[in-house]
Amino acid sequence: MKRNMVVFILVIACLHSISLSQTRKSATDWFESANTKFEQNDYQGAITDYTKAIKLKPDYTEAYGNRGLAKNYLQDFHGAISDYTKAIGLNPDIADIYFNRGIAKDHIKDYLGAIEDYSKAVDLKPDSWEAWYNRGFEKLILENYQGAIADYSKTISLKPDYTKAYIDRGTARQQLQDYRGAIADFSIAIGLKPNYADAYYNRGNAKGKLKDLQGAIADYTMAIDLNPELAQAYYGRGIGYLRLHQKSKARTDFTRAIELGYHVPQNILDMCK
Question: In order of start, what are the domains of the chain with their CATH numbers?
Answer without folding.
Answer: 27-92 (1.25.40.10)
